[in-house]
Design a protein that fits this description.
alpha/beta; binds calcium ion
Length: 227
């Protein structure tokens, strides 16, 4: 799960990054409001942790602008105890949850798990599109018509999850590469095509009519015409 932390207090940010990476989150960190907002607008994150008092632009403005642009990523706001009013303002502006500083690590991780589930999982732990369903716990792909199933690799799963979450939209190869492999891995760029082909083979294997369409020069989208 890819997480964005926008926090200007250096020690706090360092400690949080360390904890979150130990918990197997992939974390990017920005220390000011403007680069934070730009990162949020890239729409590649599963969860955002956003401090309120930031140089450049405060957390409330960032949430408002992000929501106006249609970014639906769950946002957890961090507020100082003296800013209790912030809770109301933050949640009104489109944040999903808030945490008052100082907080316990355990509390933060519990909130993140809850937001992560809200983001990707339906209540029964499956994602569906056309004639396919994805089990988000076992990473199993099932054709809902013939009940044929196959286990996906982690990358194949994440490709389908991302496509389902953005159904109706075309996702570029860049978006997919960054979402699934991260900013730092230029060399993995061509992996998108390789893994697309693996994922298509799994769709064919279960006999699904749902397909990953390549839109020439633009990217990929999910399509299911005949169900
Ligand atoms: Ca701050």
């Amino acid at each position: 799960m890819r997480l964005l932390l926008v926090e200007d207090e250096k020690r706090m940010a360092q400690a949080l990054c360390e904890i979150l990476r130990l918990e197997k989150y992939e974390v990017d960190h920005y220390a000011d409001g403007l680069s934070g907002l730009t990162a949020i607008e890239s729409d590649i994150y599963d969860i955002i942790i956003l401090d309120v008092m930031l140089p450049g632009m405060n957390g409330f403005e960032i949430v408002k602008k992000a929501r106006q642009k249609g970014i639906r990523t769950p946002i957890l706001m961090l507020t100082a105890k003296s800013e209790l009013e912030d809770k109301i303002t933050g949640l009104d502006g489109g944040a999903d949850d808030y945490l008052t500083k100082p907080f316990m690590t355990k509390e933060l991780l519990a909130r993140l798990r809850a937001l992560g589930r809200r983001n990707i999982n339906t209540p029964d732990g499956t994602l569906t599109f056309g004639d396919i369903s994805l089990d988000t716990n076992t990473l199993t792909l099932t054709c809902t018509i013939n009940r044929q199933s196959v286990r996906l690799s982690e990358k194949e799963y994440r490709i389908l999850e991302y496509l389902i979450a953005n159904q109706g939209q075309i996702l570029t190869r860049e978006q997919l590469a960054v979402k699934i492999w991260g900013f730092e891995n230029d060399t993995e760029y061509n992996n998108v095509e390789v893994y697309m082909s693996f994922t298509r083979k799994k769709l064919t294997f279960v006999g699904a009519k749902t397909e990953i369409k390549a839109v020439r020069g633009m990217g990929y989208k999910l399509r299911c015409d005949n169900v």
